[in-house]
Amino acid sequence: MMERSTQVSLVLFVILGLGIIYVGHQANVAQKRVKDLRETENKIVKSLQEIRENLKVRIRGLEEMIIDARITIDNGDGSITKEIHLTKGATALEALNRVAAVGAKTSRKGVFVTSINGVSNVRENNLYWMFYTWSEKESKWKLIQLGVGSYRLHDGENFKASFEKMKW
Fold it and tell me: What CATH fold (topology level) applies to the domain 67-165?
């Protein structure tokens, strides 16, 4: 028969061996989990990169559909200028409606602006809302040759609504 201390030592040795086996197994499980997590992370990173590239393409497409314009409203007592984003092909009337309260009448000839921000045309005094675009080439405001409902703004354009006495 074995001595008691030898038996205790043997039991402790077996327990220690089982503990080492258990720790080794847990380390393998942890390594597998880390490997799986890295694979998942790589898949997520790849998906995010694809999403980012798709978004870049879509943003470029949207940027091509958007124009920037500066809209100035001069009511004779002062002026305000607002920079806005519009969809490509937007009319001057659409831009005005975005930045001001616009009163208008529509006829077969087009849209006739009757007021902007409460300032109405005064027929008796020949005071009307007139519409201009800034000419970089000539460095001056030029009267538009179309009605505001037909005039299409261009990217970077400066447009002005001016309440003034008609000059003709």
Answer: Ferric Hydroxamate Uptake Protein; Chain A, domain 1 (2.170.130)
